[in-house]
Amino acid sequence: MDAATYVGTQRRKFLSRERVVKWAPLLVLIVLVLLFPLFEWLEDARAGDDHVYLLDSRFFSIRNAARIFISAAPALMVAIGVTFIIIMGSIDLSMEGTVSVCAVVFAFAFIAWGGTLLSWAWLALPVAVLVGAFMGFVNGLVHIKLKIPSFMASLAMGFVGTGLALLLTGGDRIRVEDPIFRSLLTERWFNFPVMCYVAFVFLLIAWFIQSRTTLGRNFYAVGGGEELAHASGLNVERVRLMGFTLAGAFFAVGALLAVGRIGIAETATGNNFMFVSITAVVVGGTALWGGIGGVWNTLVGVLIVNVINNGMVVIGLPGWVQDGTLGLLVIAAVVLSTDRKSVSFVK
Amino acid sequence: MSFIKKFIDQEKVNRRDLLLASAYGMGGVAAAGLLGPGMARAAIADPTVAWSYRNRTNPYWNEIVSGGEAFVESLGKSKEFLTHLINEGSSEKSLADVKALLSKTNGDLALAIDTNDAPNARPVVEACAEAGAYVSTLWNKTDDLHPWDFGDNYVSHMTWSDEGPAEQTARILLEAMGGKGGVVHLGGIASNNPAIERLNGLKNALVDYPDVELLDAQPADWDTQKANQVMSSFLTRYGDEITGVHCANDTIAYGVLEALRAEGIEGMPIVSYDGNPQAVELVAAGEILATVFTNPHWGGGITASLAYHAATGAFKPSEEPPEHREFYGPTIFITPEDAAEFKANYIENVPTYDWTDFWGPSNGQIQYG
Amino acid sequence: MNLTRLKPYLPWITLVTLTLLVGIANPAFFNPVGLMGLVADIVPLFIMALGMTFAIYIGGIDLSMQQMANLVTVVATVYLAQFGIAVAFICIITGFLFGAISGFVTTRLYVPSFVSTLAVGFVALSGAKYLSGERALSMDATLRNESFGWMFTTVAGIPSELIIAGVLLFIAWFLQTRTTFGRALKAVGSGELAAVASGLNVDKIKILAFAISGTFAAIAGLMFSVKLSGGDANLANGFLLLAIVAVLVGGTPLTGGVGGVINTVIGTLIVVVIRSAMIYLEVDATQQQMVFGVVLIAAIALTIDRSKLRGIVK
Amino acid sequence: MYQLNAVDKKFPGVHALKAVDFEIKRGEIVGLVGENGAGKSTLMKVIYGAYQPDGGSITIDGKAVRFSNPRQAMDHGIGMVFQEQSLILNLTVMENIFLGYEQQFVSYGVINWKKMAAAARHQLSKVKLDIDPATITSELSFAQRQLVELAKVLTLEERVDGDLVILLDEPTSVLAKEEVELLFKLVRELTNRASFIFVSHRMDEVLDLSDRIYVMKDGAVVDVVAHDEAKVDAIQHKMVGRDVDKEYYREQKQRPYSDEVLVSFDGVSDGRKYRDMSFDLHRGEVLCLVGTEGSGREAILRTIFGLETPTEGSVSIKGNRITRFNAQNGVALGVGYIPRERKIEGIVNGMNVYENMTLSQMANYSSGGVLKTSDEKALARDWIQRLAIKTPDVYKDCGGLSGGNQQKVVLAKWRSGGSDIILLDHPTRGLDIGAKEDVYEMVRAMCDDGAGIVLVADTLEEAIGLSHTILVLKDGKFQKRFDGRPGEKPSLYDLVHHMI
Q1: Whether domain B3-160+296-330 has CATH 3.40.50.2300
Q2: A63 touches chain B (CB under 8 A)
Q3: I need a surface site. Which of C11, D237, D392, D444 has the fewest CB within 10 A?
């Protein structure tokens, strides 16, 4: 008997458990998208109005899709950044600080260098991304060189970031009025503002990094088995450092889109990004213990969270119910997209 | 007031303090003796002046701070003389910071404070009275807490009755809507007093406009980004039914404006509150119909000034009438017609105030309903 | 003395060094009354950190504590008139139940505690908003003093709040070090699979750990509510991150099984010293948060015992 | 070709390597044996660059070299196949093979997956493994993963100019017998490509495969034996410095078991790993489950302990039919489980000796939930003495004990709690001879005390030597039952015949 014939090859089943779990987040998203119009239909039906399910839905419309995408775009960028970190099995909680600093630095530079994209002020865009990357780099250095677990290192770096943004602005908010920059929001192609396309391009870039570059694949290697990767000759520290730097750059892109959406850069620009982005990543099916998931999962996760938020207002849920409903739906989404058989225990 | 009566009153106050305060168990007269002057302390020659507020990300608080700084400069000191305590929206930090500062200054403190949340006012005031410091509060306090229950140490409380002004801006809005259509309200943090009052203002106005429907009211937590998202969801739910927007403050209005801009909607009637410089610009440009200026610069300065002058003994709060201890702050309406004038008077040239004219611009004693 | 022998004492050393630094820069810091007050004031934060220790000790985290405390401030304020001091039991039961739900979602539904507790926290927030009618409520002063006035008295010169904290600390310490439950917690934190293979009911232990952290959150919320004489759905905001930081700085790493409640005492004190140092050393207000972050990194770098992190630092 | 000359390595308090001379020639397979702690793993770490020697020199083809990390060693043609499987399970096979060396497939920053797949196929063909290189590694069997691992090391062939030296650290520990034979066949064929250093606890395998055998003891090489002169006894003698008992498996101590049934399986299936399983375990019996990896042996153990719920049939323990399967029930009925993953499932790393020993029976050492620590310590001291556990005191963290002593702590945990149904999953895996003998001694002692033992043995010899009864399984199905009375024991061939 020969080695090849003995160990043989296993055929993968078409509808394996892995596959079902893999597509569960998308399924959840679709269900949610179909669910909210159902409530609208019920409401109108009870009032005795004509309402064709989906067709007459205000939620299920292109205009609302655009609104959801607008609110999702900055969060998506931040969530993509943290996705890389979570794939490595680490966590990054510094996004609120980094986003604020990048937004503020961008606004200051943009205004100082001309205040319109048609001048040298366009340089403020790459400068902001560089600043984000630098903040991520420092975050990574603190984590790796001081051997502080990423949770604590990034949490503390988040404080530093927010503090730095406050120091820079002294509490002022900076308006970015340039109509060309603001066309991110105001200019629409095929019903969707430019910022949606920008976000999509960066999503593709992230996907490219994840699937076609050594760095991206190394994230998975580190997340799948850090010590093993190290033993295979991988410079794990370098991969980690690059990961945090890359995440910082994506946080910066998120900051730019956030400024583009509101037209204001301030210390509070970064608020709320932490829990939203991490929740989105997890809801999308990227496991907190690393090695599984990716940027498409994150897209689905971010959309789930934003669809829930938008849908709850659209169907007229009272304010106080919304938090709890979000909580319950998040649990449901994570439960459905976790392959329970593959994890021995969860903490 | 006779000497005897005064003494008895003083004793009452002390006993009440003994009951209410005294987390250290050193309340009342005994503590006063032990710690130094305490309640008996008449005057502090050179107290530390501090302002405790929520954060620096809201222009409103920056205005407050600028007032506080203007006041210390009027004393011939540098801006840096003013100590800042920022609570970041945490009542726990607010109280802890005050306690630390009291301990550091040994009670030689004149404190102006917004306690972040109404319930937090009591422990803050009690701690100050305990240490013999002088405190003036702004905005948040519970209805059962009064300066006159604490002798001289709780100098004053200033707040704004937002219901009336909010009602007036609402009327401007409803008129602009032609007295019909649908209005949405984006509120502050739901449990904050101003948020409640401003919504009530709108509701009061709506009584006279039966053809206008209040489509929805959702909290936007004073936050531009949240307001932006809530507004775009409103647009989905109500679409063209929305013909006017009532915002609880200016930062919310910014988010609303951007949500409308994203949809290419122009000329939607909007009113807001606070009168931040940026909002005034927007009023001048006609993008916002009206906002209410509460003169935070003056509020910030005069609150610190009251605490300071009480501390130095320049006036004795317990001898002042109730309307000098609990009073409403000033409100100024800003509409497109007077925006330019307002801008010239209040923003481009910050007026120089007489910080010893404590109650000149104030608006009467606080009424509890 | 070499560094390895010093390691277990690093949190202590950090605390003492920080205290001395602040004290030298501004001797007023050593005023005993002020110090006592400083410590008494952090009791709610400390109790919350104590609860958090249980969640982190088993290798999880509890992000619902702040919202739980918010809910409890409302529950306490709303039901004080009706139940008097018995409202404390309602609060504690509320905390226990919500914590148990977090634990259930984590263990039985396989949702990582980072997400499950966050989500349960949202549910608690909804409850708080509903119950409070989205308003700030205040307690009736007489009722409050009748039922909870004792919290603000002193026993032999020591504030009752501190005594409560001490009692809770003792209970937590006893639970952790002297009981089968504490031993089981350690086993779950250090080697969950071995605990399963030893026949321990690991799910039950974890659910209980989260229930305990919920209970402590409730006690913290109750004390805070009484202290502030009121409640609303945002009252306890700002506690969460500080409580986590306190636990971590004390030397209980997120990996579980190491550290414990005594570490949390030190951690909380370190956090408080850093925070009051800002005021004593007159750090500019706009710089405080940044300084806090930097000092935090230094403190964590000093206090964590990396040899106990076992293997990789994630 | 590759030489270590008087290499020295010291750690605080330990002289791990004492002037070790070591040499390997082109195309040679060199065995490396020694008891735990003899310095084998230190020596290997020096060879593949994880440790830097304190003294002596390393030469390749006469030229002195110095590696500061494994990567530099790899660049000199030295590769390592790890004992613990070192593939990253969430990556594809080809990614694993080229992990850390992806650069060759990258142009303009982009990985060319087709090119990598082709290269990976080439590597896999060296180990005769015909799988899609894009397969996710977790979908492979253990045996397949072992081959992928070897293929990964063989990439050095293309990458490095000189000759290859490949270290195989316990490569057979997770493989079933016939898989081992296939691996050996492959290794012999591969000697035209590389030299091998083979480390194993299984003496027969080392003898079988190696051209020369280095015997280590106490950090020094005590003998180098050529293949033809190698004798198990002689080598073991040198390793342990004493004679190994001929009656290795304590057959003379095997006594007949009683009629009392402890565990009874009647037509049990778990729906996945095994089907229609029926057997009885009696008091005093060692019942051994024999089969290849994946034959369902472990799943049966886990069912008895209560970690898995069967879908069909009935399980009775001491006459009680089990309806709710959980570990607490199992423990309460006297079942003790000694898992294969000793460091992960056996002991709690981070808890001390007495804490580990009472973990399963805390109720006995507490009243009202409060622990009686002095009783615990007394228990621990008693069992430390009974089983001769080498530990400075009862406060020692079990993670810091040697493998054999960890195993003794686990055994003490169950035995001290009165468990009389003991499930042994590879109890001697990774233990040196001395520690193995201790375990065998304990197995006999437990039987004498009236315990019933279900064993999944590390080797077939062990299975034959220890058991009263052998059940052979294949693909989750019962094949054949053998009676193992001393003198009538089945032969290796009998078993293998039914296994494959």
Answers
A1: yes
A2: yes
A3: D392
